[in-house]
Write a structure and sequence with these properties.
467 residues; alpha/beta; glycosidase; binds 2-acetamido-2-deoxy-beta-D-glucopyranose; hydrolase; 34% helix; five-stranded antiparallel β-sheet; TIM Barrel; 2 domains; GH
């Protein structure tokens, strides 16, 4: 009696696992609602301020790679805070992860995974950190395998395949919990292959990672085109030269490289990037309250953003950098760009770009032009997650929100959809090819589950009736 349904289940699994195709048999759990918690903002945003009950996963940033694969670097303040972080998460049934790497902490990933000996040492360092803090998992925020990030990372053409070997080794470690959560935060294009181009097949990562969070933010603009959105939902509708990545194009790219949509999480930013742009360029000549799209700009011409922004200074590579120009969502309200209800502050011009589904704001006095995210753009992204069968969202960073308006918006829309934004979007960009193919790829495994699961339920009911 007990054995029959199991046998039927394996038939279902077999039926779904077509050779050469990557279809997940595991039934999707509730959508992933994740965020990163930045330890260096703990004074302003303590662990007690996190809306724990709204999350499924919380990832602590950062442990960093070091020249010695045996050692993952942790600041002393992070060492002191991690036990409380893990305890707070566990008290709310939230998975507690540590993120390793980040923009400034990825310098030595390449050597840490560069040989069998180093991988064993690095895996041991990961294992001991997991056990020491009772963490549920590790988020690999390697920026980027096989591709330069900040400028002084070690890069090796075999990075991506070596990274996979490390993850496979971790999965084989029987001393680790079977529920170990392994995730990766990734660029909008798939991990580089050994020629430095985006890999065409990295399906192996889907077997060893719980989810892959596409960091669909910090997308660069192009001086030839002007300032564009830093976190576009779509870019297929953007002008030529400004198609620099988006949720639509990156999900299609990762999916085409063999990662099923239900392993993809959309990384979203609760912040915006600003640029110094004169009002003659930023505002329409015929209507001074109307913002121009793609205004031209001078690279690195940025002022300090909100009070969490990093000022100019020398980075870990020894290179002088301009201020970040970053505004959290609460920072936009604090600095007067937005009122607390998200509407325009006094004298601020706003524009919502229907292609990227993201807003822009401009202060003509300070001449600061910001590309940011708001509840409307988060609802559009949540709807995209829902309608494409993605695993959920991951927000950088938990402390960037304002009274959870962004979190509530994307969480609701990723669970329930937001047909309003979808209808609106469809009428604006009807049938772009990349969007069409990505959603077709995602609905196939889902519909198999819908066909096969009821069959399974029906059959097991028959079994219990007949015995
Ligand atoms: C988690 O719950 C336990 C048991 O109730 C409690 O002792 C502990 O202080 C809580 N941790 C945090 C960080 O609130
Ligand atoms: C292994 O790690 C050592 C540092 O302990 C480093 O010098 C060496 O280059 C690494 N090997 C590879 C192949 O990356
Ligand atoms: C990359 O891996 C190949 C195959 O294992 C090996 O022959 C080659 O030496 C490696 N290249 C580098 C730069 O480590
Ligand atoms: C000027 O632009 C604003 C913002 O886009 C718009 O609300 C307003 O209707 C425009 N005024 C005219 C006269 O077109
Ligand atoms: C616009 O910038 C000016 C100059 O920095 C500042 O004084 C003013 O408060 C800003 N306006 C708003 C509405 O924040
Ligand atoms: C949640 O989404 C549903 C469906 O789109 C919508 O009707 C409802 O207003 C949303 N609720 C919130 C709090 O955003």
């Amino acid at each position: 009696m007990l054995r029959l349904p199991t046998c039927i289940l394996s038939l279902v699994v077999l039926a779904m696992a077509h050779p050469g195709e990557h279809i997940e048999a595991r039934a999707p759990e509730k959508p992933i609602a994740a965020a990163w918690y930045a330890g260096w903002h703990a004074a302003d945003f303590p662990l007690s301020a996190v809306s724990w009950s709204k999350y499924t996963h919380m990832t602590y940033a950062f442990g960093v790679t070091t020249p010695d694969p045996n050692i993952i670097g942790l600041d002393i303040s992070d060492e002191n805070r991690l036990p409380q972080f893990v305890s707070s998460a566990h008290n709310h049934s939230v998975k507690a992860l540590l993120s390793v790497g980040g923009w400034t902490g990825s310098r030595y990933f390449s050597t840490a995974v560069g040989s069998a000996k180093n991988r064993t040492a690095f895996a041991k360092a990961i294992t001991s950190i997991l056990q020491k803090y009772d963490l549920d998992g590790i988020d690999f925020d390697w920026e980027y395998p096989g591709k330069q990030g900040i400028g002084c990372n070690i890069v090796n053409p075999n990075d991506t395949s070596n990274f996979l070997l490390l993850l496979q080794q971790l999965r084989q470690d029987t001393t680790l919990k079977r529920t170990l959560v392994l995730t990766a935060a990734v660029y909008v294009t798939p991990f580089a292959d050994n020629t430095g181009e985006p890999s065409s097949d990295i399906a192996g990562f889907a077997d060893v990672l719980d989810y892959i969070a596409i960091m669909n933010y910090d997308l660069k603009s192009n001086t030839a085109i002007g300032v564009g959105p830093s976190s576009p939902l779509d870019d297929s509708c953007a002008p030529d030269g400004a198609k620099l990545g988006s949720a639509v194009s990156s999900v299609a790219a990762w999916s085409n490289a063999g990662i099923p949509n239900n392993k993809l999480v959309l990384g979203v930013g609760a912040y915006g990037h600003s640029y110094d742009i004169s009002s003659a360029v930023a505002l329409s000549q015929t209507n001074s309250s109307s913002l121009n799209s793609y205004p031209s700009y001078t690279p690195n011409s940025r002022s300090l953003g909100d009070r969490w922004d990093g000022d100019s200074g020398v980075d870990v590579c020894g290179v002088m950098q301009a201020p970040g120009g970053v505004y959290t969502y609460w920072g936009l309200i604090e600095e007067g760009f937005l009122k607390s209800d998200g509407s325009a502050g006094e004298g601020i011009a706003l524009r919502y770009d229907d292609c990227s589904e993201t807003p822009f704001a401009y202060n003509a006095t300070s001449q600061v032009y910001v590309s940011y995210e708001n509840p409307r753009s988060f609802a559009a992204k949540g709807d995209f997650i829902h309608s494409n069968g993605l695993a959920g969202f991951a927000m950088w960073e938990a402390g960037g929100d304002y009274h959870d308006v962004l979190l509530d918006s994307i969480k609701n829309a990723s669970q329930n959809g937001n047909p309003g934004s979808r209808t609106q979007k469809a009428s604006l960009v009807s049938g772009t090819s990349s969007k069409g193919s990505s959603s077709a790829a995602s609905t196939r495994p889902a519909s198999l589950v819908f066909v096969l699961l009821p069959a399974l339920v029906f059959l097991s009911t028959l079994m219990s009736v007949s015995t």
